TrEMBL record:
SUPFAM superfamilies cross-referenced by the UniProt entry: P-loop containing nucleoside triphosphate hydrolases (SSF52540)
GO MF terms, alphabetically ordered: ATP binding; ATP hydrolysis activity
Name used for this protein in its record: ABC transporter domain-containing protein
CDD domains, per database record: ABC_ATPase
Keyword annotations: ATP-binding, Cell membrane, Membrane, Nucleotide-binding
Pfam families in alphabetical order: ABC_tran
Domain ABC transporter: 1-204
InterPro entries: AAA+_ATPase (IPR003593), ABC_transporter-like_ATP-bd (IPR003439), P-loop_NTPase (IPR027417)
Domain of life: Bacteria
Alphabetized Gene3D superfamilies for the sequence: P-loop containing nucleotide triphosphate hydrolases
The UniProt record lists the keyword Protein biosynthesis: no
Species in which this protein is naturally found: Rhodoferax koreensis
Length: 204
């Protein structure tokens, strides 16, 4: 049998873990847990953003064998409060044209002009949807999402979930989705885990 797309082995730091799980192409693991339980720590360790021990494998190849920029192209982390480093969203879109992004913009209820507006002038919810587009524009194999719909109304939440589900189905994108909503976890997750006592526990 083919190895899992992502394999996480005893990943830990002083702030969380050891965490172990596998993720297949096209699969979503939804992660729930109390505030401060270590959900963001988990994502940051998988993304290689904090010092840690343990290992992560992508397509059977250990992360220690990947050049860091190549790893970060394939495994993309979206923070709960994403940072922006240029004035407009368009400048963050990994060279993808407005035309190429148009279907996603429309699906998320954003007009094409939102790409050209100053990011700072977008509403919190517009910025959050734009952050997801930026993550998808990088065409990762694995997307690590930290509460990506926290600022959205119910219709926009569903639009985000539907876009992600289509990308998982059509491209094999794999997702680790951190959320405070058990209902959302059940909608989007093929598997649910809870972070408790610095460990992952299967839910349901
Ligand atoms: N670099 C760090 N230095 C010190 N403490 C840290 C560091 N990173 C995380 N922590 C601590 O680890 C714990 C888990 O943090 P984490 O951000 O993962 O929580 P969370 O489950 O994502 O919470 P929330 O749902 O509120 O976002 C917290 O107590 C946090 O203060």
């Amino acid at each position: 049998m083919a190895p899992p797309l992502l394999q996480v082995d005893a990943l830990h730091s002083p702030h969380g873990g050891p965490y172990s799980f596998t993720l297949r192409a096209g699969e979503c693991i939804a992660v729930v847990g109390r505030s401060g339980s270590g959900k963001s720590v988990l994502l940051r360790l998988v993304a290689d953003l904090d010092p840690h021990q343990g290992e992560v494998w992508l397509e059977g190849r250990a992360r220690s064998g990947w050049p860091a920029p190549a790893w970060r192209r394939q495994v993309v982390y979206q923070a709960a409060e994403p940072a922006w480093w240029a004035p407009t969203a368009e400048e963050h879109m990994s060279g993808q044209t407005a035309g190429a992004l148009a279907p996603w913009l429309e699906q998320l209820g954003l007009g094409p002009q939102a790409l050209l507006a100053e990011v700072a002038r977008l509403s919190t919810g517009e910025r959050q949807r734009m952050a997801l587009l930026r993550s998808l524009a990088r065409q990762p194999r694995v997307l690590l999402l930290d509460e990506p719909t926290a600022s959205l109304d119910a219709a926009s939440v569903l639009a985000v979930e539907q876009l992600l589900q289509a990308r998982m189905r059509e491209t094999g994108l794999a997702v680790v989705f951190v959320t405070h909503s058990r209902e959302q976890a059940e909608r989007i997750g093929h598997r649910l885990v809870e972070v408790r006592d610095h460990r992952l526990h299967p839910v349901g």
